[in-house]
Sequence to fold (330 residues):
Amino acid sequence: MDLFTHVLVAYLIAYGIVGYAPGYLVAGALAGGLPDGDVLFFPLVKRFPILRHHGITHSIFGVTVVAVAGALIAPHIMTGSPWVYFAVMEAGGLAHIFLDGLTHFSVPPFLPFSDMKLELDADRAINFVTLIVSVSAFYLLLGVERNHVAFQYYVWTLWGLTAFFLAYFGLRLTARLRIGQILKQRPEFSVPIPTGNPFDWFLLKEEKSGDRERTTYAEYKFGRGIVAGPWTVDVPTTEPAAPSGPITTKEEALARSFSVAYKASGVLEMTYHFGEARPSPAGGWDVFWYSLEFGLFGWSAGVRVHLAPDGRVQTKSSWYNPAKWAHELA
Fold:
């Protein structure tokens, strides 16, 4: 979850606890963003792994230590009760843990006592929907409305934002619960992949055996079920021997291009991925290996591989729209 959303959600929670009290609101919002300050510990991570990103700062113990420190320090900087400062900062920190746990980027809420992970796979780590809403909300609250409109408009804005996030996270969790039930009924899938749209998901299964990788996925729409697929690619993970003649099938093009694309872009190694191939208008084949997790507005990041008729192979990192390409082939 992006930093802007962490801070904004913590600010809204603090407002729900104490109302309009600037000191408490600032403390709560600050606590909502502080866990991501663990990036500053990067030079120490090899020696102290517990300081890694999404480590001790993303645990109940970590946010409680921060809340206690805030409760002791804040009253000397701003007026207010130490107990209230503790409450809003604890709530902001716990909200950060929950929002990160909502994604596929797990957090360890019980460190240092247990390394058990919280990972709900209900949203993307960075979702541009919430990012845009959060950035716009800060501009609205701190720029457009601050000292320019009646106080009541500010209050309505806060409650409107609260309603949006409650509805959004509620929809994400409801869809994830439903998908969990589907996965039990459909053993050909094992992994849910959220997209930027809370109604649209991928259901996937990746199998690796020896020097081969087999990936199957389908498109799922919340409320309608599986709407497209499943599709499957089964390719060698090592570069096959050069073909004795021209490549004639999509399966050959996929097999020939995968290891080349995998080496050309780290995004394929870090995320679930898929491949599409079609004959090139200039001869040979065009293959696009793309991420099923790293995308925006229908476009996915990946590697375009051109397999020329004379055996030359060209690669280019690019963005790809699977729906658009499918339409072109229709």
Remarks:
- DSSP finds nine helices and eight strands in the chain.
- The CA atoms of residues 18 and 219 lie 43 Å apart.
